[in-house]
Amino acid sequence: MARKTKTVTMDSGRDAGKTFLITEMPLLQADRWAQQALFALARSGIETQQFDEDEGMLGMAKVALNAISHIDPLVGNELMNELLTCVQIVPSGGVARDLIFDDDSGDIEDVKTLFMLRKEALLIHLDFLTAGSSPDTNN
Prior knowledge:
By secondary structure, the protein is α+β, with helices and mostly antiparallel strands. The chain has one domain. The protein is built from 4 helices and 4 strands, in the order ββαααββα. It has helices spanning 27-44, 56-68, 73-83, 111-126, and strands at 5-9, 19-23, 87-90, 97-98. Strand 3 (87-90) and strand 4 (97-98) form a beta hairpin. Helix 1 packs antiparallel against helix 3.
């Protein structure tokens, strides 16, 4: 089965109109990434018991933000930057290629774009958590 992909086009900022292709990490890379994230959260001392199911996604967001604020910045930065390995730019020719990160002539010019691409890369790996879907299609 092919890895999941998603195309994202920036609609504002210095990168408006640029299109990016996000591809799910290979299995072992995704598993290693998830384990590192879970270990970082465990070491942060975050209490997940504070999650109130009645708050739904808002409650999950509160716990996530609290957890992120407790992660060692070096580990957190490494995890966030690894999400960018899932991203390619789709230039006007239409053939996706790896991103170029260079201060003067890089593909991304806006910090908002980095945030959005990391968020979308994370979501493509966590989509099984959304309501009504399951990683096991037999459920």
